[in-house]
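agent> fetching stored inputs for the zinc ion docking request
agent> found them:
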Amino acid sequence: MDNIPDYTELHAMHEARQERMLRRVPKCDICGERILGDFFFNINNVYYCEDCINDYKVDTEDYMEG
Ligand SMILES: [Zn+2]
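agent> prediction call returned; pasting tokens
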């Protein structure tokens, strides 16, 4: 029974691993949050999350009218 790691130990290891991974993830320059999505935008080495970059999206048609 000795070689079965107990749950708390496993959990702590898992947490530490997640922590290390998270620290490598860049923070969004606009909202300051760590980027946890599948992708992010790297524009001239400045990072943006999908949510923030979407705020910059403009519908071309807005400029075609009038
Ligand atoms: Zn953001």
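agent> quick read of the result: Residues 28, 30-31, 33, 49, 51-52 surround zinc ion (CB under 6 Å).
agent> awaiting further instructions
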